[in-house]
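To: structure subgroup
Subject: Chain for Friday's discussion

All,

I'm putting the inputs and outputs inline so they're searchable in the archive.
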Amino acid sequence: MASSLAEQLKLVASAAPTEERLKGKASLLYDIREAADIDLETIYAVGLQGFAELSRLDARFEAAGKSLFSKQASETNRELQDRDANAKIDAAIEGFLRLLTGYFLDENATKCLEYLVRRYKVHVRNVDALIACALPYHCTPEFVKLVQLCALEGTSFYFLAKVKELGAAPPRSQLVQRCTHDGAFLSFICDAAATTASNKGVPGAASAFYAVTLTESIAAMKQVTAATVPRLLPYLEAGLAPGASSEQFAGAIIVSVQLALKAQLAQPLTEALMEGLAKGARAPLHAQVLQALLVLCQTQRVRALPSRAFKHLVKLPDLASHVADMAKKYVCDELLCVLVVALAGAVTAHANYERVLTEVIVDVELSDVAVLALVRELAVTGTKDAAVGADANGAGGARDNTAEREAAARALRLCDAHHPIACSAAVDKVLAEAARRAVVASDGVEVAGDAAGSGKTKRAKDDAAKPKPAESPFAAFLRWALSGSAAGPMPGHAASLGAALDHPQPGLREAALKELKRGGSSAKTMSSGTVLAGALLRRVSDDKPRVAAAAAGLPGVRVAIGDDDALFDAASERLNVAAAKCAGKTPEAELERAVAKRCVKLLVGVLSTPPRRPGAAGGEGAEKSAEKGAEESDAEESESEESDSEASVEAAADGAADEGSDPFAFDTFKTYGTAKQAATALTLTLARKTRAAHGDSIVVHACTPGMVRTNLSRFMHPLAFYASQPVQWALIKSPRQGASAPVYCATSTDAVAREHTAGYFGTESSFADGPVLKLEPSDVAREESVGEELWRIMDALHGEVEGDGLR
């Protein structure tokens, strides 16, 4: 019997962890030899003092007073306790050590640990909990000393044996590498991180350590396995909880982002993370929450903002301001699209939603993609539950959707006001999509594919027998909401007014101009600085005469374009084209004569008056008077065009045709360019003739000074003259710089200048100063036949001049 009991006692002793043999006592406060001479009562007094100080700092420590630091507990011998009693002691110790993590470097914490080591042998029996308590401080001497006391064999920290042997603190990279290769250690870190995140009031050192370690570990993994994600979930759940501290929440944010960057997550997990981020957002981490949501949207291909995440997100104060700041720094279409779609879809659900949507539209620089998503969803919201064929006011609808329609219309108009170009393009796409759906629905399209994947579309009905599809609810709603706007749909067309002005079909461009004319010069679309300015300018110089005539005669075109110089150039250019084509009795010539007349009216009648200035009644009156006269004349021309009377068209354009049909009509710039080429051609011809008569004894060169600041620009149109002055002083040569090429040709002894007669010299740039180089003249100037003909003409003129005694 005694023998059996002895064997059992040996078995129990062998199963219990054993303390390493030391020449003294294990201690954190004293040398091991010195500690051997200090009794347990003294150590208990030291530990109790430290415990009292910690309890004063943090009342949560008081819970361990009875179980670990009471007089009765100090007399407990663990070797004599059964398994259940030791389990209770272990639980008390582990709870105390979790709290102690935030105070590990405090001297009172060291006093408590000294007592736990001596009384409960935590360095032998509770190694994992003890090192986990100190692990956030792995670079400190205190951590190294603690590791050197511990019995590491059989624990999760056996790899720290080198630390114990050499006394060197382990770098974080060693811990990260261990996480990537040792699943058990990664689980331990995740559990410790989750426990830390669950503890309220713990200072941020532990939270920061675990967050950074987990983030770097995930980044270092070649692949995030299916087993890794469940290990992280408890930490993420605790860190993203509303009750977590800001440090814990920040740590969970960076781990969530790294996980999303590294792995494709299941949709429920993605939605849970987005909800946790939105729900737990707090100052000063609002911007970081939005950045994390952006990463999730980008990496996990989020197509719709989860409803619960959306409800929490819109409660963020200054949401639009934070989104605007983020949009300036990053491309954030993925988040913006789902956000504006969610706001547009729920715009009437709560007054706060419309307020936030308004702020986003006004404050955020929305991209074309985001505006398209917004317009598309607003169109859906504005036609929600409306029956096909219902008019814009809801007649024939299944229910009264007035609130949704009006809220969507307000948002649309706001979008048009702040993002006009993108809104116009978005309306075009929405209309085109609706038109395609209508065609498919009415025609019954059937697609048959071949082996290569291509297919041929077969219509089930004859196109001629089908009635024209009715206007879609989308088009009707957009027309009503954007009435008077450049983004509004053209009547009868699947295009906005702005897009129709630049449409490839000239008929649609002309129809858009007529629509503008119907709206009048006081319409919003014709206001100063309108988004249509560029398109209207292009239409003034349109190559199709009917379009150009409609644009040049459009009331208020000067105000709408807002740039007299650009309008003058466009009208002048189109007038030159019309003048070259208006001779004869062909239909094209008649149309070109109409263009010429309207361009002349625009140039002489409208642009000759002073531009309208705020508060300048005289200039405004003169401009209105000029436009009124042009409008009355244009009204007469419109009637004549509609009646298709050839006589009326010819009579309306006769004056301009007579003036513009002169092939020798003077054009300042063209004449100047022609004279310059003629001078070069004559000089090169002179060089050839001189060489033939005298060899190389006489050298003849042509040269160009380039663009030089002279008074030649005084002959320009006044508008162009004054507009060119800043350009002249900033960009072109001074007279001194312009003289470099002529002086070089006259005085240089350079071999290039002396041996290559008939050269053409100048600087590489016509605008900037530089070394004089041998250049290539134009093809026309090099043409010998051109030079010889000019020589013949000049020789004849020279004879006349000589006869007058002026030689």
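Points worth raising on Friday:
The mean pLDDT is 79.
DSSP finds 42 helices and five strands in the chain.

D.
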